[in-house]
Design goal:
The protein has 648 residues and is of the alpha/beta class. It is 40% helix and 13% strand.
Length: 648
């Protein structure tokens, strides 16, 4: 990876950009900034979005195809790596920009598409079937007939403050970050404000923690500041291990310096001289990008000793967690950094009083930290003008499940949940929306008719749901709610640290009850049904005990999805318990397959694949399924080319 920073570039930014008001930039500085921002390119530029999601979509092969094309044709073209714009299901994305022309984005690009795209664009012809859109730019000429991306529903409904640089700048380049305004907030904070003032600005801005709780960030900072000590710590909680949540990871991979800048300012405000970013060991690219960015910041003098001549010293490092969900809980996270087993501890004392190595420590979520530089740079009034009365600013969400576009978005607080679903393009194949689930394994489902709820910490609480850390799963009729909550409970019981009996045993018991509901009816009789019914009745009392007696949020909130689904989808529970049916056809044990004799050609494919020899017949005559032997695996349905297999 290219880590060479030209000392003259560093000097230019430190002397002319970080310390000057942009209105005061001379013509020379403006020209140079235009050059760094690629506003006046003299040769074509290809931008390739490389993050862990696009790597899964095959972007590394696309990169090879681009490099081969460029070298075979001996072309003079720049290839710039960028992050993700958020449209994960459209990846790999390739942007092409010609001198004087707008940058165009191509979607779902395969290595085979590269010659078509590049032959076309380099000859001023755009293969429109592969195009997502073009960026709007005041200095460039637009392409005719190509939509502007800010007119697309996906971008139109968003307010991209934290995500502003994602997919636009090179995450491996501190120069790129500075060219687009990066580290100016840090410079402003260190040169113009005391740490007390920064704390006050964050308090006045109304920024609330995005890690789920919505605790006022400024208040947390001040609490740590008020403890007299020889050492304070600032930690960025970048664990993000909820199933279905991926936005923080992709933000860190797309714009790592935003996190580093926010963390330096936060550390300054709370008087910490050591800052740590805690993320999962398995987030290989995230760690790589953060570590490179930290290295560059040291090299440029924005980390380390006497930063920007302010007298402020700060050390920063990335700590790789083992990948346990509970390690995202702040006291467990602190134990993990101390080298101990990541288990939560009783609060109080809160980390702000007695945290890492017994010293006052502020733990803030990635998104919370990512907001800090924008607030300092643009001011408190700007920030308080976004959002609702008590929930200021924007909120990030990752959206997955049965949705047309798996993506991440940033919307102003106050946006309705239905608007978020619209932005993503709605359900997959325009199927009927059954619900959305917000907040992962300890979150809540929301019915379509409730989707006018606004994104707001307090309003969501009033509606009986919680913001969570930003994962939304879209659910249609092909999803079985019991199967979904069973998965969440499986996750919770697997991830429980085991310290509290109600969490450890309660989550296991809840899982057993759910498993019992979906278990195959073997020698079924009234007694079994009664047992299942009694189990469901127990869920509520179990949930209460777990909520009241568990030490941390994992155990306290474990029953949220179960209780909510019981309330909203009672019929589905009854069908599973009494009728022994799963309408969605997801619970394998509750389905038996049949063969339509009108459609069956007797091709034998299903009988050959059936793992229990449950399908019998004579070749070229209709086959049939022996019900008692069928385990509901569905292989027969998958292999039948004549749609002759169905389940009941
Ligand atoms: C089981 C569990 C897992 C958590 N995981 C995360 C996480 O991955 N990231 C995060 O920021 N907060 C997580 N939290 C919340 C943290 O304990 C803490 O409240 C948060 O990091 C504080 O940051 P904020 O004030 O900026 O929201 C988790 C809490 C619990 C109970
Ligand atoms: S509630 Fe569960 S995860 Fe939390 S400390 Fe207790 S046993 Fe561990
Ligand atoms: S695969 Fe389909 S068509 Fe062939 S035997 Fe089985 S049910 Fe009949």
């Amino acid at each position: 990876m290219d880590n060479l920073i030209n000392p003259n570039d560093t000097k230019f930014f430190l002397e002319h950009v970080l310390i000057n008001d942009p209105l005061g930039y001379s013509k020379d500085v403006k020209n140079k900034l235009d050059f760094f921002r690629r506003n006046r390119i003299s040769k074509p530029v290809i931008y390739l979005g490389i993050t862990s999601s696009s790597i899964c979509a095959g972007v590394l092969d696309v990169r090879i195809a681009i490099e081969s094309y460029v070298s075979e044709k001996n072309l003079d073209i720049d290839l710039v790596v960028v992050g993700s714009i958020g449209l994960c299901s459209d990846e790999p994305l390739v942007d092409v920009q010609l001198p004087g022309k707008n940058r165009i984005i191509f979607r779902k690009v395969t290595p085979n598409d590269i010659p078509t795209i590049l032959d076309g664009v380099l000859n001023k012809f755009v293969p429109s079937e592969l195009v997502l859109g073009q960026y709007r730019h005041e200095l460039y000429e637009p392409w005719q007939g190509i939509p502007f991306i800010d007119d697309l529903e996906y971008f139109k409904g968003q307010n991209r403050v934290v995500l502003a640089n994602c997919g636009r700048i090179d995450p491996n380049s501190i120069i790129d970050y500075m060219a687009f305004g990066g580290y100016r907030a840090l410079s402003k904070a260190l040169r113009n404000h005391t740490y007390e003032e920064i704390c006050s600005m964050i308090e006045q801005s109304g920024l609330r923690g995005r890690g789920g709780g919505g605790y006022p960030t400024g208040t947390k900072w001040r609490k740590a500041l008020q403890v007299s000590t020889d050492q304070r710590y600032m930690i960025c909680n970048a664990d993000e291990s909820d199933p279905g949540a991926f936005v923080y990871r992709l933000l860190m991979e797309s714009d790592p310096h935003r996190i580093i800048e926010g963390l330096i300012i936060s550390a300054y405000a709370v008087g910490a001289s050591k800052a740590i970013i805690y993320t999962r060991n398995s987030n290989i690219l995230t760690v790589e990008r953060l570590e490179l960015a930290i290295k560059q910041a040291y090299e440029v003098g924005l980390l380390g000793y006497n930063i920007l001549d302010s007298g402020f010293n700060i050390e920063m490092s990335v700590r790789k967690g083992p990948g346990a969900y509970v390690c995202g809980e702040e006291t467990a996270l602190i134990k993990s950094i101390e080298g101990k087993r990541g288990m939560p501890t009783v609060k109080p004392p809160y980390p702000t009083e007695q945290g890492l190595f017994g010293r006052p420590t502020v733990v803030n979520n990635v998104e919370t930290v990512a907001n800090v530089s924008s607030i300092i740079l643009n001011g408190v009034d700007w920030y308080t003008s976004i959002g609702t009365e008590k929930s200021k600013g924007t909120k990030l969400f990752s959206i997955s499940g049965k949705v047309s576009n798996t993506c991440f978005v940033e919307v102003s607080m106050g946006t309705s949940l239905s608007k978020i679903i619209d932005i993503t393009g709605g359900t997959l194949n325009s199927k009927k929306l059954k619900a959305i689930h917000i907040g992962g394994p300890s979150g809540f489902s929301v019915l379509p008719e409730e989707l006018d709820i606004q994104i707001d910490f307090d309003k969501m609480k009033e509606a009986g749901i919680a913001m969570g850390s930003g994962g939304i799963q879209v659910i249609d009729d092909s999803v079985c709610m019991i199967d979904l909550v069973k998965y969440f409970m499986y996750f919770i019981q697997k991830e429980s640290c085991g310290k509290c009996i109600p969490c450890r045993e309660g989550s296991r018991r809840m899982l057993e009850i759910l498993q019992n509901i979906t278990r195959r009816p073997v020698s079924e009789n009234g007694q079994n049904t009664l047992e299942r019914f009694k189990g469901v009745i127990h869920l509520e009392s179990l949930a209460e005990v777990m909520r009241d007696t568990s030490l941390c949020g994992l155990g306290q909130n474990a029953s949220n999805p179960v209780l909510r689904s019981l309330k909203l989808f009672r019929e589905e529970y009854e069908e599973h318990i009494f009728d022994r049916k799963c309408k969605a056809g997801v619970c394998r044990d509750l389905r038996t397959f049949y063969i339509d004799i009108e459609k069956c050609t007797g091709c034998t494919a299903c009988a050959k694949k059936c793992p229990t020899n449950a399908i019998i017949g004579t070749p070229r005559s209709p086959y049939f399924v022996v019900e008692d032997k069928c385990i509901g695996c569905g292989i027969c349905e998958e292999v039948c080319k004549f749609s002759a297999v169905y389940f009941k």
